[in-house]
Write a structure and sequence with these properties.
Elements lengths: L12 H9 L7 H36 L5 H18 L2
Length: about 90
């Protein structure tokens, strides 16, 4: 696999010190940055997929005229929350 480079990143000295302070044993700042960038990319991709699913769902609802009233959804969520709270006690 070919590799590329990311442009150098200028940061305040305090931020660099904070990043270095959280490195795990044997971890380099470069490895930390690569992992951080990878996780953020995955997060953005998941967010975009979530939004796309929401738009697709809304389009299907408009097309078929099938909507669930907000009160019904909130009620179901409240019941789930109550059940989860009972399980954790």
């Amino acid at each position: 696999m070919k590799t590329g480079t990311i442009p150098p990143l200028r940061v305040p000295a305090t931020l660099r010190k904070e990043a270095e302070a959280v490195l795990q044993q044997g971890e380099t700042l470069s490895a930390f940055m690569l992992e951080s960038l990878t996780r953020r990319i995955e997060s953005r991709q998941a967010e975009a997929a979530f939004v796309a699913r929401g738009f697709a769902s809304a389009a299907r609802a408009r097309k078929h005229g099938t909507y669930v009233p907000a009160a019904k959804v909130i009620g179901a969520l409240r019941r789930k929350l109550a059940a989860a709270r009972r399980r954790t006690r």
